[in-house]
Structure formats: C-alpha cells, structure tokens
Amino acid sequence: MPIQILTETVAAQIAAGEVVERPASVVKELLENALDAGATQIEVEIHGAGRQLIRVRDNGQGIPADEIELALHRHATSKLNAIDDLSHLETLGFRGEALHSVASVSRLMLTSCHYQASVGARIVVEGGQVLDVRGVGIPVGTVVEVADLFYNVPARRKFLKSDATERRHVVQVVSQYAMAYPDVRLRLMVDGREAFHSTGSGNLADVIIAVMGLETFREMVEVVPLSPLRADLPPIQVYGYTTLPSLNRSNRTQIHLFVNGRLISDQRLTYAVVQAYHTLLPVGTYPLSVVMIQVPPEDVDVNVHPTKAEVRFQSPDAVFSAVQRAVRRAVVDATAAPSFQSSPEQAEWDGDEQPNYEPRPVQTPPSQPRQNRLDLDWTPGRYGHQIADDDEQQAIESTPYFPPAAPPYVAPTPPQADDELPERMGTPRRPRTLPILRVVGQVAATYIIAEGPAGMYLIDQHAAHERILYEQFMAAYAAQDLTVQLAMETVTVSLGAMEARLLEEYREALALLGFEVEDFGKNTYQVRSVPAILADRNPAEVLKSVLQDAERGDSPAAKTIEDKLVRRVCKSAAVKAGQVLSHTEMQGLIRQLERCENPHTCPHGRPTLIHLSRDQLEREFGRT
Ligand code: ADP
Ligand code: MG
Questions:
Q1: Which of 74, 77, 140 is the pocket-test mutation for ligand 1 (most atoms within 8 Å of CB)?
Q2: What is the domain range of residue 568?
Q3: 0.90 cut: is pTM over it?
C-alpha cells in the first residue's frame, strides 16, 4: 500500500481508542463534562450494559446553540485557551477530544440549552458524520445520548467483556464520581432500574454509605488533613475515609484516590495508603479507602494521558508522604494498639508535629442519612431557576432509610461427631485416590503431617478441606441434592451499590446453590437460607465474601458462575489455617481427602499436599 494520509474518520476512530475503551469510559467523559458544566444533578442511564445506549443528562450551564456543532470537533474546548492554562486548570476536561472521539465510534445525539438562551439545539452524528442540526426546546442543561457504541469498530466491540463486567465498570465510575462530588446529585439507572444514587447532601460520608454500604462505613475512620511537616513543603491536604484493620480485602480495588476532584489511578499513591497500614494489616490484605488529595493546580500535571487518569506531581514524594501520614494517623489513632507504638513511623511522628484536628475514633454514621431518594422530577441547577424544596426535604427526613436492625446472628452449634470434622464430612464411598495415610500430628495449626507407605505427607488443612467440600458440593449439585439450611433468624445485610449489583446478577446462580435472599429495599437484603455446609457461618458475611470473590473473578479456572460461587462457598466453609484440630478431626479430614477425585489441588489450583518419599528423605539425610 502506498503511503497515504488517513481520512479524518479513520484517524478519529483510531484516536478514539485512546479515550474510549468501553462503555464506562464514555460514561466517565460525559460525567466529567456535566460536572465541568457546573451541574448539580446528573442522571446516567445505560441499556444493554451501555452497548445499546448511554444517556447522560445534566442541569449544567448548557452549550449555546451556535456552538453545538463546534463541541463535536476534535480539539474543540471551552476550557483552555493557551498552554499556560494547563497549569491552573480547574476543570476535569481540557483536551477537547471526548465528544469527538465518542461521536466517531457511535451514533450520538447531543441536545443542549444554554442558561442564557431561550431555545436549545440538537445535533445528530453517526460515526463522526453530522446528520442533522436543529433548534429544540429543552430545559437548561445538556443531554448526551450515545447509541450502538463501536457499531463501526468491530475490533473494539470484540474486546468488550461480558455485560455483567461492563455494567460493573459503569457502576464503579459513577459511584467514584459521586464520592468525588458529594454535593452533586447523581443517579444511575441500569436497564430502567435504579442501581445507585447519591443525594447531593455535600457529605462524603453519605456517599460512601451509598457506595459501600453502612456496614463497611461503620468500620471506617475519618482521615483528616494534617499540617505539613515543614513550612517549605507544598500545601497538600489529604482527607477522606479508610477502614480499620478489622475490615480488609484481598485486593486493592477498593482504594479510591482523587486529586483535586479527579479520579486517578496511581500505583505509588495506592502503595502509600497500603504502607500506612504497615504492621496493622497482614501482608496481602488491603484496606478500603476513599482518599481525597488537594494540591495547588500548578503542582500537578494532568496532561499525561488521554484518559487523564494518570497525573504527575511536582513533588511526588511530598504527596506520597502526606497520604501515608494522614491515613496512618487516622488508623493508628483509632486502633491505638500498643504493639506498634514503637514502630519507626510512629516515632517519627511523635516529634513536634501538631495535628490540627480532634482525633475521631470509629465512625458512627451521620445522625440522619439523607440519601433517601432522588426525587423523580428534574431540578434545574444553579443555571436554571431553583424550586423551593422544603416539602421535599421534609419528605426526605421522615422516610426511614435503614430498615430496623436485624437481631444479632447466633451461630448454631455445629454437630460433633467422633471421627469427623465439625463440618458435614459424610460422603458416599468413592474409589481411593491416595494411599491410606496415618496422621502423625499438626504443625503451626495449619499443616497436617501424615505417614503413608511411600513416605511422608504434609497436608494443608484448609486447601484439603476446600477440595473435599468442593467435590461434595459439586456432586450434590449435579444430583440436585443440595441441602439448604434455613436461617434460624433472618439476617439482614446491607450491601454497597456494587455488591447489590453483583447480587442481582448472580441471584439465580446463588439461589441454585441454596442462598435465598429477599429484597428489603435500598440495597438491603434478608438472607433466608444458605447452603447447609455454611450453616455455622454468619450468612451475611458469607454472602458478602461470595460476592466479593465474584466481583474479583479471581478463579480463572471456573467455567461457570455457579462453579466460581461454589469455590467461594467452599473456601468460606473450610477449616482455616491456624485452627487447631484434634487427632480425630485430622484423621477424618484425611479419610475424605483420600477419596477425592483430585486430591492433589484445592479448587483454586493450589497444592493440598506435599509428598516426601522415603527415597527423598534418605537422600536428604545422606543415608544412600
Ligand atoms: P473537553 O471536555 O476536554 O473540553 P469535550 O469533547 O468533552 O472536551 O467537550 C467539548 C466541549 O463541549 C466542552 O469544552 C464544553 O464546552 C462542551 N460540552 C460538552 N459537554 C457539555 C455539557 N454536558 N454541558 C455543557 N457543555 C458541554
Ligand atoms: Mg470533556
């Protein structure tokens, strides 16, 4: 092919790849535009996981009719004039690329009415080609509709993940922006149902409760700004909320960082948060945190990447240490355990630094959470005329948001059998897959030492039990013979927006496994039954951990959702490392393992046992 200059359309489609990766990236760009326009209320709607339709409506200042065509041009922006403007940017957008990119890979309709105009305008674009521009009457604000995303870029379409995954990314983006802008009322509708809303109360705590759930929030402490260590350091304010060590995750996905209201992904700063928990959290576990970082605009470069998710700081070390100090101070003050008083970090802070705040221990939720409902009618923002909404406020205050507290969960006493583990270990006889093993003892309350004809075996009790339960569960599942344990007392669990979505998605699969869950309104659910092997666990906790695992998709070998959920259920039900087992319990466990189809690995693929043959032992001791 001879060298030729790409047509504008192809060039735009290629460039769009940098900004628009998936439905959630469109939602992000449109949200940023609405926020930049000063909207106080934004509604995001998606259909078909955003592939079919994404609609974002705001009550911001709007676009003048004579500029509406321009808004869709590449490098067309009202937010930046000269390159110097970049150094004191106060808007989320500035590259003038988003609308142009989105329009080149979808069918886009932009309708807007500027706050100083009496009439609005609408433009319809398909694959970058303008089809129609006309005047229309709409309230002040903007509506952007993006239909058939990537209809003309099959390669992109192919890379999209399942609907569930794409929806989850959208929920994530919307809830993160809700956290960054607590004074904006944000609502997300997924296929006509409300998935999330924030009230615009201006209170970050309210939004965190809506996003992460009240139970998580109760385990959080407030991070408050500290005065800088030295006067010559740039003024960096760090605030937000972070969990106590008692609540943690096995991944970093719930550490949310914002710089000047902009959501960022920054490995180093994420590490600063993790570092703040040094010695407080076991290695491999991570907090849930919402960390807001305010720096002077001139000290941060946001023009690093087209998605603006990466930023560069003038003094990255100062930001790192500000984040780490503020988070650690909050957590240490709240936990105040003697074991780390002597840690070097602590010693360093005990110098002459004066915290400029009253330490605040474990959070109680705000007295009257206000995020009851987002009224269905549209409120004109600061650019339209305000409706006096005293009545509405009244209605909000008097509607109970949280259902009455559930009675505390009382774990039923597990049945005690002589030669079995407390958990249901009875199985039909199956062919033996391991030689007969004799238990010798337990090491570190984690490993069982056993002896067989071919030498010595070290067995990971947790992994082995997971394997046993998994095979039992799958067999019962295949035979449609799962025993279900009705909850003795119905347990109410309040989920975060993300978890609630996952629950909705996996509801059927969960029901098949024995989880019967009933809607209690406002992302709150009642657990009516659980799989019998989980009878002695707290149903709410089990449900949450099953959902978290489903979210993470950390079980790549699992072919189906059910399979993945089963693995998680078994993991929850299995004896833990660190649990002292009696000789008979160990022997019972090994009897079961001997008859597993695949006794050598746990359902997640890790080994259940290590075999040291007689030969190996003799070689090690130099006997041969
Ligand atoms: P950028 O946000 O980087 O300026 P975009 O392509 O996202 O670039 O938007 C182009 C321009 O269109 C913006 O600068 C703004 O003037 C206008 N615009 C886009 N969306 C909105 C909106 N929701 N409300 C008001 N103006 C908007
Ligand atoms: Mg923009």
A1: 77
A2: 417-611
A3: no
